[in-house]
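INPUT
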Amino acid sequence: MTRDPPRLLPCGDTAFTIEFGTRIDAGANARVLALDAALAERGWPGLLETVPTYRSLTVHLDPLRADPAELGRAVLALAAEALAPVPSRRLWRIPVVYGGDFGIDLEAVAAHHGLAPEAVIERHSAPEYRVAMIGFLPGYAYLEGLDPGLALSRRPSPRPLTPAGTVSIGGAQALVASIAAPSGWHLLGRTPEKTFVPGREPVFLLQPGDRVLFVPTPPERWDVLAAAAEAGEPVAELCEA
Amino acid sequence: MNARLHVIRLTGAASLQDAGRRGFLRYGLSASGPMDPLAHAAANRLVGNGPGAAAIELGLAGARLRVEGGAVRLALAGAPSVLRLDGEIIAGHRSFVVREGSELEIERPREGVFASLAAGGGFAVPPVMGSRSLHQRAALGGLDGQPLREGDRLPLAPFPPGGAAEQALDPVPLEREAPIRVVLGPQDDLFSEAGLATFLSQDFTVSNRADRMGYQLDGPEIAHGPGGFNIVSDATVAGSVQVPGSGRPIVLLADRQTTGGYPKIATVISADLRRIAQRRPGERLRFAPVDLETATRLARAQGALLAGLAARLRPVAGVAERLMSANLAGEAVDALRAGD
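OUTPUT
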């Protein structure tokens, strides 16, 4: 396997990005998570936070305690090493009610690909995904692993508000949304699970690197599961290996 | 029961902000915190607080506030506003005591956008995830996860007893004329030469779509390169200048989205975040490139300025000012005349 050398991209005086690729790619994401883990283990004076994404790691620093150029070069050198991949120990089984009012774009996505809605559900719930990035809004989990046969570019105009718990696809990405927000993605379903609850421990359910399986769930189960989630009970199942 | 600050009237945006909520960028939560950290720290220092205590941040806002259930020491710093205590004009960038039942009127600022109103001892609202800063999109922090509204009663920490002298600070200039300095990147290579030239040489105007999340700018369109304007989402920082397909740049700020799928042509240096935040809708600005070394030097200079605020406090000593602080300005003038 050929590996492109990582690139150091400046983000002003308080951050820099180490970029491993420009496309969605499991290999690039594995290198991102390996660098993230190596930095967490090693620590660095003035290094504040790291943000893993599909293809890059952004490092935030305090320019009063670290020299941004120097720290950037040091982290780039570390990124160029063959870092040990980080095993993803946590696997979540997340219940999803597909179609109807829960996923208003299921039929359109099916029609676009010339598939039956059931086939879209099957293909969407078949793979084991990996949380490649949590971003945009708190707890929004961007997944890697979507069946390429389902990929579909975003809607021409975003919807002003999509519900909390929305499970959607945009381009080659799959997403579990936490809170209600505007979105230009295609809504396939919803999960009653809450991935972001201030005051709960943990506040954020999912972490970058976690594995995710979607479990198709009949709409009749929604009320029971939603009530449980509202009461703070977990409705997604965590298997640690 | 502690004293409270009762919001009688409010026009514009206002929220509680402290130094910000750190450590959650990897979970999609931006730090929030003051749009003008120097103004925020100055207001806090004036009332004897640490620089990162929670204060009310007013954004192009006017307000009338009544102190209930006790006295409080207050100070306003940042965008200059006319202040009236029970109808009498008082100076900004200095502390003053407001007695129970008194009303403070803050006019919409004459220039700039953000002003911070600090209270001695701070505001007694519980921190959420380590911070009292409001993050409005996440409905987190502040007073019950909401911006300030008319009718709110903000609980104040106990007013420290004793008659500490009132303090004053020279206002930190808003520096609204000079260009906003940027470091190019992370994705400047995704723009055409003409696009980069447009960005660095033309005037832009702050649009009406400007809030704590970011400022969208009007002006000439910035041309992308042949690769187009979509990237696989990566992380944003405070100051990221992202350019969507419209070619109209958006400067991302304190409450921004933590990741985005548009290329970022440049990053506003940390020392100039407060300067762009203080530009109003309709005001022009220009960008000027600096290298990373310069940006770092300027960040450290601003850090030193912030750390040195406490040492630059000066007790309000003049007779007129002292009497004014006791809200007896009218008598003070008479007393001075009598002394001629």
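end of record. Residues 16 and 186 of chain B are 32 Å apart (CA to CA).
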